[in-house]
């Protein structure tokens, strides 16, 4: 474990009114609030400290989601030069392609890719989905064994049609046995290939755009490098981009957790609107085991219900993930369930309650008596209604939130609006566009050339038993004598 320090100066990161130091930042941050509560503003303040620090530290890096589509101008406004910031958005003309071939180098990672591209679902008849994953895995095995340099587009092309798949599988001794398991019946293999085609259909434009990219990077480069990755976001191709982002996040986490412990390494993961990202694989493992590897995770979301959804992390998984977060900022809420959950985070307190009672008697001589009693009652430290009564974040009302941190305790505070928006926030870059679309033509997946088709899916060599056998010498002699007689 590396115990050396790169600098004697403390590095502090602003999270609203919380100042989190370099060691505490690996205990993770959480920003919760309804739309307009100020989560994006708090993330911008956090990035204003993180991004310049990454530029100075060679073993620091960041991966950030881009749900609102303004991450590039925000990041370039903070750090206009000196730090590499790349977008992995396949539909952006500047988008850098993911070098899958460099990251999927073993059968186990190939198997995981097959399951991520075609995730398990609650199906009454899972046979065809399972068989489809098996064939995807077999195609990847064939590529790995033959040491072929492939792209995501090549993988999709290799899975187009029974004949092509069979040729790819037959090209390696490690995938050849799959042919015997599924290709003996034309109707069976046709149904399996249809399942593959239907599930991989959304990825065609993504793979085509990445093939037209001028640069490729691998996540192995990222975990050892010093740059920022901005994940893609597309409402028009949401399902495909969401799954591809999940693939990249999973591989980044796997590579990071496989690295040795370090006190100086920092890998920042910023998941804004985390419920919009779909279920991120291995997020729980990252939260639990990433600290010793230098991982710092920042989660922002609007409602606890979105995370507790069974299709996401479920109640137990959500509790496991959020239970690892030590720095919590909760702004204005609109969801009663989320407000109740937030109130429970702050716990209960004992307060002294005074009760006055007055009694009167009306007789010949009226009388009046008063008594005062004091007793302690237990109530929520912060009522659910207090979260829902906070003002929206704006210049006039500022940014109000409740804070809960192991280092600072629990408190409520409001950041001054004019100071926050006019002095503290760094303006977004006006010279960097957030999105430059690729040409429509780049979304069409071109077929292989004849040369590349032969390279990836060579025609199978006939087995010895399948060839026309050459006649034995004695047979040759008898044939020649018969010809002479004729």
Features:
single chain; 486 residues; alpha/beta; Rossmann fold; 2 domains; nine-stranded mixed beta sheet; two-stranded antiparallel ribbon; 18% strand; elongated; disordered C terminus; transmembrane helix
How does this model look, in words?
The protein is an alpha/beta fold. The chain folds into two domains: 12-96 and 213-424, P-loop containing nucleotide triphosphate hydrolases (Rossmann fold, 3-Layer(aba) Sandwich), CATH 3.40.50; 102-206 and 448-466, no CATH class. Helices cover 40% and strands 18% of the residues. Strands 5-8-4-9-10-3-11-14-15 form a nine-stranded mixed β-sheet, with helices on both faces. It has a two-stranded antiparallel sheet with strand order 1-2. The protein has a two-stranded parallel ribbon with strand order 6-7. The longest helix has 20 residues, at 238-257. The relative contact order is 0.17.
Write a concise synopsis of the structure shown.
The chain is 40% helix and 18% strand.
Sequence stretches where pLDDT stays below 50 over 5 or more residues: 1-7, 465-473, 475-486
Which range does the strand content fall in?
15-25%
Helix content: 40-55%
The total of helices stands at 20
CATH fold-level topology of the largest domain = Rossmann fold
- Named at the architecture level, the CATH assignment of the largest domain is 3-Layer(aba) Sandwich
Structural class: alpha/beta
What count of structural domains?
A: 2
Number of strands: 15
Using the coordinates above, name the CATH class of the largest domain: Alpha Beta
Q: Major sheet: size, sense and barrel closure?
A: 9 strands, mixed
Strand order of the largest sheet: 5-8-4-9-10-3-11-14-15
- What value does the Rg take, in angstroms? 31 Å
Shape: elongated
Distance between the termini: 88 Å
Average pLDDT number: 88
CATH superfamily of the largest domain: P-loop containing nucleotide triphosphate hydrolases
Quaternary form: single chain
């Amino acid at each position: 474990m590396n115990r050396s320090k790169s600098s004697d100066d403390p590095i502090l990161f602003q999270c609203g009114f919380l100042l989190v130091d370099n060691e505490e930042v690996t205990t993770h941050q959480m920003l919760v609030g309804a739309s307009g509560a100020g989560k994006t503003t708090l993330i911008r303040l956090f990035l204003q400290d993180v991004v310049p620090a990454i530029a100075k530290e060679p073993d620091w890096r960041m991966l950030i989601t881009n749900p609102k589509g303004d991450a590039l101008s925000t990041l370039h406004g903070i750090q206009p030069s000196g730090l590499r910031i790349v977008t992995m958005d396949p539909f952006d003309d500047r988008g850098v392609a993911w070098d899958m071939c460099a990251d999927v180098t073993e059968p186990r990672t190939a198997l995981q890719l097959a399951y991520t591209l075609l995730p398990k679902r609650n199906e009454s008849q899972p046979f065809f989905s399972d068989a489809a994953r098996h064939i995807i895995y077999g195609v990847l095995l064939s590529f790995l064994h033959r040491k072929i340099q492939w792209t995501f587009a090549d993988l999709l092309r290799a899975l187009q049609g029974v004949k092509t798949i069979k040729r790819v599988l037959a090209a390696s001794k490690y995938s050849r046995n799959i042919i015997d398991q599924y290709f003996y019946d034309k109707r069976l293999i046709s149904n399996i290939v249809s399942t593959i085609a239907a599930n991989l259909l959304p990825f065609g434009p993504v793979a085509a755009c990445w093939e037209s990219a001028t640069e490729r990077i691998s996540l192995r480069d990222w975990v050892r490098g010093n740059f920022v990755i901005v994940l893609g976001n597309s409402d028009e191709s949401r399902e495909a981009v969401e799954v591809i982002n999940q693939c990249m996040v999973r591989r980044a986490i796997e590579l990071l957790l496989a690295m040795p412990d370090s006190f100086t390494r920092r890998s920042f993961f910023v998941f804004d609107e985390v419920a919009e990202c779909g279920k991120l694989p291995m997020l729980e493992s990252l939260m639990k085991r990433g600290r010793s590897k230098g991982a710092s995770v920042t989660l922002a979301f609007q409602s606890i219900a979105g995370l507790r959804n069974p299709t996401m992390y479920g109640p137990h998984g959500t509790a496991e993930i959020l239970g690892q977060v030590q720095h919590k900022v909760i702004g204005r809420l609109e969801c009663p369930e989320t407000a109740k959950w937030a109130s429970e985070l702050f716990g209960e307190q004992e307060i002294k309650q005074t009760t006055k009672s007055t009694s009167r008697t009306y007789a010949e001589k009226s009388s009046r008596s008063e008594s005062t009693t004091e007793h302690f009652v237990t109530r929520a430290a912060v009522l659910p209604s207090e979260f829902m009564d906070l003002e929206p974040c704006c210049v006039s009302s500022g940014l109000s939130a409740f804070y809960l941190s192991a280092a600072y305790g629990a408190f409520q505070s409001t950041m001054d609006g004019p100071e926050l928006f006019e002095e503290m926030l760094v303006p977004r870059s006006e010279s960097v566009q957030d999105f430059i679309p690729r040409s429509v033509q780049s979304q069409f997946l071109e077929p292989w050339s004849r040369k590349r088709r032969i390279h990836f899916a060579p025609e199978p060599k006939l087995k010895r038993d399948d060839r026309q056998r050459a006649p034995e010498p004695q047979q040759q002699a008898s044939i020649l004598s018969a010809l002479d007689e004729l």
